[in-house]
Amino acid sequence: MSLLPLCAAVFLLDMALVLGRRTDFVDRPVLTGAVASRHQALDGLMTFATDNSKVPLIIVSVLATALLGLRARSWRPVLLVAGAGALSVGAATLVKELTDRTRPPASFWAVPESGFCFPSRHTTIAVAVLLVLAYVFAGHLRARSRAAALAVWAGALGLALLVGVSRVYLGVHWATDVLGGFALGAVVALLLIVPDTVRRHRGRQRPWRRGADWSRSTLPPVP
């Protein structure tokens, strides 16, 4: 539960440093190093990660959870993931407009971009959607295989990290944009995961409420 205030604090601190223009000591050397390390073998992977980290990721994730929901006869999985997609897009877009931070010089760009850059919207969406997707599927797998559930979490975090790295590698974001995207995406995910976890935990603690009427109708009369 303490992860939510921690991620929010990281995001607010990062945004304060960005607004105060105190990030050059990190942003410029990281960007320069990332651009200098470009290699033909990595270019395709990084471009693919960037191109598929917004709308395609949301669509695939919603479809995957819809199938899971059909099997479980529940709208919960798809609503959680769709909520993560919608909230992350809205939150990142709002903060971009409020901070109006300029992107790195266009001479660094390996792909076309436009608009403001803090936080990285690609990273925010990827982190939020992938974390909620992992939460849904890991919860489904945990009863069968704890190792499989851990693998789902590891895969989600790895893919989110790849998206964040790709934004700096392609020269369209500063490192602190990506950090802000990670923190904001985690906040969005946790705002959905924490209440859902609490609700499910309370439901397991008080199963008698679901069958209260049946219980009363079958109890023998008290002499």
Summarize the structure.
This protein is mainly alpha-helical and 223 residues long.
Structural commentary:
The structure is a single chain. The chain is an all-alpha fold. The chain is 75% helix and 0% strand. It is built from 9 helices and no strands. The protein has helices at 3-19, 24-36, 40-51, 55-72, 76-99, 121-142, 146-169, 175-205, 212-218. Helix 4 packs parallel to helix 6. It is globular and about 55 Å long. Mean pLDDT is 90; it is low at 208-223.
Layout of helices and strands:
Layout: H1 3-19, H2 24-36, H3 40-51, H4 55-72, H5 76-99, H6 121-142, H7 146-169, H8 175-205, H9 212-218
Helix pairs in contact: 1-8, 3-7, 4-5, 4-6, 5-6, 5-8, 6-7, 6-8, 7-8
Q: Give the fraction of residues assigned to helices.
A: over 70%
How many helix segments? 9
* Helical/strand content category: mainly alpha
pLDDT under 50 segments (min length 5)?
208-223
* Amino-to-carboxy terminus distance: 48 Å
Order of helices and strands: HHHHHHHHH
What's the total count of β strands?
A: 0
Radius of gyration, taken over Cα atoms and rounded to an integer in Å = 21 Å
Oligomer: single chain
Mean pLDDT score = 90
**Approximately how much beta-strand content do the residues carry?**
under 5%
**What best-fitting shape do the alpha-carbon axes yield?**
globular
Report the sheet with the most strands, covering strand number, pairing sense and barrel closure.
Answer: none
